[in-house]
Structures
1.
Amino acid sequence: MSCATRVSASVRSRSPRFARFPLDALRAALGQAQRVVVLEKALAVGIGGIVTANVRMALAGIALHGYTVIAGLGGRPITKASLRRLFDEAVHDRLEPLTFLDMDWDVVNRELARMGASRTSGPHAENILLDVVRSRQARCEESTKMTAPAIRFYQTGSLAVGNRLLDPDQRSVQAAEQRTNSITCGHRACQGCGEALGARYALDAAMRATSGQMIAANATGCLEVFSTPYPETSWRIPWIHSLFGNAPAVSTGIAAALRAKGRTDVRVVGQGGDGGTVDIGFACLSGMFERNDDVLYICYDNEAYMNTGVQRSGATPPAARTATTQAVGRSRGTCSVRARARR
């Protein structure tokens, strides 16, 4: 996921417990594997796949072939047929260590050739998009001459998402009819936002586990801001917005109300970012754990207060730079900061 978002969850625990990346479990499960393919939907420059870095750490010292596959960038569909081709190439060791699923390399090479010829900066993204549009138009024109219709991937909030109207083998993975699609399109998250993807995957899984009987309480933060600009919403589940620090308390209240009404079939999920979880909301969260309330709490930990300008939170790792991290070293901050310090 982009933005290095991690999802940690604690379920009906008597004491706060934040799930770490399962290094030991992963090493035990994959220790005898010959090949490992990590399918990612985000790419960190200089690192590669974000999940891959943790997998590589877990499998350090084990001789195996590891592949990182970036898929779904820009809303590209991930189809079952593409995955079958991918795994077949991995089994025969024909993958590069870093592979882009269904990447149109002709478009990329044309842009690289343009860059080499001009030797100036320019709108490379726009050029690539124009090439993609022209290539798509050419394919559509060619397909009209054939009996088989062109495959179009509709990115809308209807049942057409992921080509549900096509044959199962041609549909994208997100077109599974069992998928709730808890947070749908139309929100205002940044492109490739890891929190939007994490929330959708986590709550879709929770909806499956509860047979669709679930209520979510959301703390103020990025997830709330980009998904519910008044009077609009991207949520397709019962969803309640609370203050920055009281999502656990609101979740507790919902669970208590359901218990009083005898609704044992409905479950409650509380969610928030790391600021609203380990800083501002920690007292409410601690009380929720101490009472052993029947609530699933999910922390979308992107390691800073991202919604308000990347300020440090209690979950920010050591040595990470944020807008409020104390300057260290011989040169403390900008020139203006040093000038004020001398005064």
Note: The CA atoms of residues 327 and 334 lie 10 Å apart.
2.
Amino acid sequence: MEKSRGKIKKYPEPERYRAREKEMLATEIAEELNDSHSLGAFQTIANKTPEQQIRIFLSIIKDTYLIGKIKKSRGAMERFRLQDIAGELSEELIAKETDTLAGYWIEHTPKFKLVILFTRDAEDIIRPYLQKYKELSSIIEVGTAKYSLTEIGNIQEEVSSSVGSMGIPVDSAIDVYKNCVKVYVAEEDWTKLNRALSEGKMVLPDCVEVETVDSLAEPAAEN
């Protein structure tokens, strides 16, 4: 067999193939959203985000863009990416900061930001996470609240159980924005609950708010 002569041809390394795939993906995003001016931004997104997530985000953005809910495709794509990262951060905070984590949510207006509340030392607790999740450092806003999510959850269970044991059906929910528990009671049962509170048969924590409703939600039917 005749041996080949000359220099050995070097084929592109896997990294170069991946880089080319990212470029093609960024171009596809720009074409799909008809936004060639934002190609550089889409390239950055393609480099940082798994392709499967990008395609999910792209599908959502295209649908909302077509009905006029999203005006700036580049900004929309970036927000979806940051929301995904914020989800990873929230999971880590729930696992590691149970004693102090008091709430978290994303606000879109008037400014896009991620709000995170702790019961104490908010700046100190969030500092190492800002190093890990650098993409979020410019949108995170921390604050303090009286009760942790764990404490609020326990209060919700205790109050619902106590009121229920008196024969008063209620619904309840946690309001993370106000760091409190909302207890909903039907108007027909409000007098009974108010009497129990007035007579001292029941004392509600300061983080519990009672609201009357026409009727409680019907329990889901079992299959």
Note: The beta strands are 101-107, 113-118, 140-144, 170-175, 180-186, 208-213.
3.
Amino acid sequence: MKVRMAICVIAFASTTVATNAGEISVFDFGIVSKGPVALGMNTDLSGVTDPADGSIYSAAIGSLANPAVSCGSGHISGDVSVSPSNTLLSLDLAGTTVDGTVRVDVPLMTMPTIDITPYKSLATTVMNLARPPAGTYKNIRIPANTNPTFNSSVTIQGVMYIQAPNTIHFNNNVNFTGVMVADDPPTGSPDSANYIYFNNNMTFNGVEQLPDTSDFTNVRKLQGTVILCPGFTMEFKNNLTSVDGVMAVKSLIARNNIDSTFMGNLLIYGEAGLDFKNISDVNIDLSTYSGTPPGFVPEPITLPLLAMGGLAILRKRRCAGGNQATPSNPSTCDWLRQ
């Protein structure tokens, strides 16, 4: 295993923290997860324009049986970072080449607060069919407990707003262009009741690729985010080709080989984490969009942050203008305070 080691100084829980290796933000990592990150054998995780984009941060405690980060006989172009209470015992990188640094004891970072309010009013068409027919669906809202199964190939454009609880099955190919958002599930609602499943190949095209028509005028302004479902598990049986923006889910599972390009961060909000079962070729490019991604609440700059090098963060962080998010919604963001 080819790695470089660094021990970081604990600062404070935030989406941006100061360490003796420099300031780091949630949005500096290609993959960020509350739970474990498991990459299959021979996985290649690479930054497209910057090797650092192929970096991983996990807040999982980890153990020998269930490492915070695992990758068998693969390659990671960026850093691998874990948080306090973790040790090298929570990493399983045997046979993996890590071009960046393995950072143990990185300060805890909270996940960004998500606010899907701007999208709700744009989902103007109710889709309440249990077996939707083939066709094109524009700016749809799926009421709670609809539990639709799309057996035919469909085209979805604009906003797809999922009210919870719901299980969504796509059993055929999906042509998706726009953004998928979902409510947080009710308290006590099981993961199985809040699930999005893709049986065949899937590509998420960004909102900028929507037709320039009145149906999508306001949606097209929200570039940089494609999935805001932090309370839903998302599973792909076959290939996930590309994701044109930030992807936020509770858990992400890929059953078969993944050959994907992500034009934004993968943010995993649940303890189950990310699990790519087989060989994966994952490319991440964080250079396409700038500023706080739509749907994320900017983090106010505080005096403690400025005292710990916040001005340097403002100069170097990818999100222009210092716009980062701060946890305020306990259903999605307080998990590191507990």
Note: Residues 1-14, 301-338 have pLDDT under 50 and may be disordered.
4.
Amino acid sequence: MAPTNFATMPFLLRPLALLALIHAASATFTRGDTLIWNNTGTNFNDADSWTNANLLLTSHAPTFTDTVSFDVVGVTDPVVTASSATAVAGITFGTFGSGYTLSSATSGGGYTSQLAIGTGGIDANNVSGTNTISASLVLNMDESITQAVGGQLDITGPVVLGGTGGTTFTIGSPGGGVINFTPSSVELAGDLTIVLKDAIVTLPGVNLLNAVGTSASLTITGGGYMTITAGGNYDGGTTITDASLIVTNTSGSATGTGAVVVNGGGTLAGTGIISGSVTINGTDGVSDVGRIIGGSNGVGTLTLQSNLTFSGTLPGLLVQINGNTSGQLAIGGTLDLSNPIDQITFTGTPDGTTTYVLATYTSRTGTFDIVNYLPSGYELVYGANELDLVPIPEPATWLGAGLAVVAIIYSLHRRFLHRL
């Protein structure tokens, strides 16, 4: 397969060429040779830069059947550049392979070539040091990214995720090393499930790949944490199960235009904005309950532009109190608490005098059935358009007010008698 030169291709045709590359990779990715970087040169596509692991075979430039390996003691040429569009079956950083930066060719501040990686994924076995991949990546198959304990892998370039028919992308491994998955942009080429395992994942706005022309959904699971920092336009909906999604966008919608469903063990939190309806489901009998948290550590507001519904068994709102502030939900539609078993839980200690606004809404049905750890001296007050945590006046305050009223009545009574 001849390499595609994106630098000479009209801009509008690049997404179509990328899809062709994805399709070819999806159809033909198989394990072939293992090519070892020989620490000479900087061109990823140069055959002279690689040694075939089977020394009986002549080496060649990487192709979609090959796994490429960086495992050389003492990196002399740390920056390796894919000069043209390339597809490989997988990338491995060996025990001694650290300190590399794998990039794509750029021009005018943008990337001009893509690097597609097959089912072999990215397997970083270095036990110290950091490798960085700032290439324009295509990860459109069922694949994983792992990092050994002691090492670190940073992925910072633009990424295309997902493929036709739905794909699963696993990042991290239990007890593994540090993976900072912070791509500069993310585009979905189809429905995608991300399995999070001990990885730090921060995504900018998630958008549909321009040439796809169909909807794409995002499912987050696996027990880890993901942050989305900007608005996106994917439209197939978002599902969170046994994982946490933190949204911090200041414009647009972090979860695109579709609905958001939080299942057992899932958490939705942050200070960002979500345009679609949000449903918090309860426990599934195996996982913990689904829950929503306004703000972060008792500060800030999570904005939901549509309805918020609690459903199932014990779905929850967790309220974090921090001094004279608390996390808050700003709901642009209905707060639906008609579910027979939903709950609100408090953490932190209020200051004793502040009235905390927990949620605002245009309308409400029902109330929370279970209140956990209600702060002493406070009560929940359900208003027409907001839910508040309000301090209860001390008995002495009530007594003082009552005596004042009695004194006023007595004084008026004496004045009346004096006039007689």
Note: Residues 1-214 form one domain.
